[in-house]
Amino acid sequence: MRAFLLLLLAAHAAALPLPADDTDTWLLAEKYLRRFYGLPVGLQGSRKAAGDFQKTIKQMQRFFKLKVTGNLNEETVEVMKQARCGVPDAGEYTHFPRKLKWNTNKLTFRIVNYTPDLRKSDVDKAIRKALNLWAAVTPLTFKKLHTGTADIMISFGSGEHGDYNPFDGPNNLLAHAYPPGQNIGGDVHFDEDENWTKDSTAYNLFIVAAHELGHALGLGHSTDAGALMYPSYSYRTGFLLSEDDVKGIQELYGPNPSPHKPRSCPPTKCDPMLSIDAVTGLRGETMVFKDRFYWRLHPQMP
């Protein structure tokens, strides 16, 4: 491992703004690129190792619409450190070339266990609200089961939780889901080591559930920063599906035959004690930072 890192450092040190001896950052990047972009394991030879690493960084930079340099710069590392979904951005999930979808519009779901962070009723409401988001724009219906096996099995777990796809503790990987299919197909897993909330004080269960259920219905990640299916987590109020989300799900299942226009939610009154740490613009969005959380205000979203 150390020899591999040294080869990469030697190949890129002249062009990198990061310290050449920042081993922790390189380990973070290597782990991230393996998990989400299929960086090959067990590379042999310095040229191939450096070439594959640079190629994979470029792929990740293009996905997040960063400046494509092939270098592990600060902007790229910051994206790698963001809390996000555990589903890969490349590989089987990318655009679902096989159009994985359920062969019925009448789906069942079951909440196998509950997080102690919230009341059971709040978990039920968050999951139902997330499902309704997708049902509103498709012919899909969702029936809750209390026992037995459902199409979509929803559970909370920590670390290794039975699918050989372990969580990593607090922050970083929040949840993951599997595309439609038999057995584990369609299942949604939340990391119990996260602090789940129904507001913005930690990770909002509804927002993460809505994203993961998109995967369970057959959607991959979107490169649109305003889309629900964008891989990085952000909190927003008045949450609705973006045009990209609607187009993707309707390509699989078609539109809702009886659509209704959703009522817009009136803005909530701000806390008079509300304070923020910083505000900046990035790639057409307004970014608001407070403690370890951030909010993306996208011009295409309400």
Automatic annotation (TrEMBL):
Binds 2 Zn(2+) ions per subunit. Residues 1-15 form the signal peptide. It comes from the Eukaryota. Its cofactor is Zn(2+); Ca(2+). This is Peptidase metallopeptidase domain-containing protein. Ca(2+) 1 binds at D117, E194. Zn(2+) 1 binds at H161, D163, H176, H189. InterPro entries: Hemopexin-like_dom_sf, Hemopexin-like_repeat, M10A_MMP, MetalloPept_cat_dom_sf, Pept_M10_metallopeptidase, Pept_M10A, Peptidase_Metallo, Peptidoglycan-bd-like. CDD domains: ZnMc_MMP. Hemopexin repeats lie at residues 267-302. SUPFAM superfamilies: Hemopexin-like domain (SSF50923), Metalloproteases ('zincins'), catalytic domain (SSF55486), PGBD-like (SSF47090). The keyword Coiled coil does not apply. GO terms for cellular component: extracellular matrix; extracellular space. It comes from Takifugu bimaculatus. Keywords: Calcium, Collagen degradation, Disulfide bond, Extracellular matrix, Glycoprotein, Hydrolase, Metal-binding, Metalloprotease, Protease, Secreted, Signal, Zinc, Zymogen. Ca(2+) 4 binds at D277. Ca(2+) 3 binds at D168, G169, L173, D191, E194. The lineage of its organism: Eukaryota, Metazoa, Chordata, Craniata, Vertebrata. Belongs to the peptidase M10A family. Residues 98-255 form the Peptidase metallopeptidase domain. The active site is at E212. Zn(2+) 2 binds at C85, H211, H215, H221, M229. Ca(2+) 2 binds at D151, N183, G185, D187. One of its GO terms (biological process) is extracellular matrix organization. Pfam families: Hemopexin, Peptidase_M10, PG_binding_1. PANTHER family: COLLAGENASE 3, MATRIX METALLOPROTEINASE. One of its GO terms (molecular function) is zinc ion binding.
